[in-house]
Specification:
This protein is an alpha+beta fold and 277 residues long. The chain contains four helices and 13 strands. The longest helix is centred in the middle third of the chain and has 17 residues. It has a single domain, classed as Deoxyribonuclease I, Chain A (4-Layer Sandwich). Helix 1 crosses helix 2 and helix 3 runs parallel beside helix 4.
Length: 277
Amino acid sequence: MATDQAVPAALTVMSFNLRYPAADAHPWRRRRAAAQAVINQELPALIATQEGVYDQLQELVSGLDDRYAWTGEGRDGGDAGEFCAVLYDRRRIRFEAGATRWLSPTPEERSRGWGSSHRRIATLVDVTDLRAGRQLRFISTHLDHRSAQARSESARLLRRWAAEGGAAVVAGDFNEPPDGPAHRLLCAAGSDEAAPPLRDAFAADVPRAGDDVGSFHGYRDRHLGGPRIDWILHSAALTALSSGVSQFRLDGQAPSDHWPVQAQLRWLGPDAGARGT
């Protein structure tokens, strides 16, 4: 009989565009409890967030029973601007190292590139899955909504950065459906990219919830058949067990203008992520 150590529990990951605290009909003070509730219900080990600002992220984590910590840097430097913060469950995940890189020709500098409408960033976090004893690079990102060139060039960067860490998950708001060029640049095998391709957890032949629902809903009642612009991609060291778009509401209130997306992943053998497999 296999032990828990030999077959670790599935690694649940989530991507969640929180929407910044806009002065609109759905302010953060109304959405905060719903955002906390969906995380407390699903209990993902790792969460890639987008658009959160510093005070908003602090408030979010304060309602998560001291289970989660977060890391990241604002796109305008330090605590300024929107974050692509990573939340991690301290009972399952040990933080090892992290960095913020800008999606531009000069990733180490606070910058923008390729006609991007805003500074765009990726938060790279190297962690250890304590149950599996395996190391993982987890990347949270938010691609530009206007410049197709910026999305494509950002995808090239992300694929390379994912390969630096061996096993990897890249999750975020890609502002493009999965039939677009950014997805192909990240996931296509045999492309001119030197780094190995990633795999879309939603493309696997596994149970999927909310298949008919786009991940961006804009507070409409339902967004059937719309684009899934929020993705969870993973390297060959992992395989998807299930995936889904969560249409969670608390007392009728959606937590954001995006639905959270999540996937359950399972570790494969230690050689599964090697180049060429």
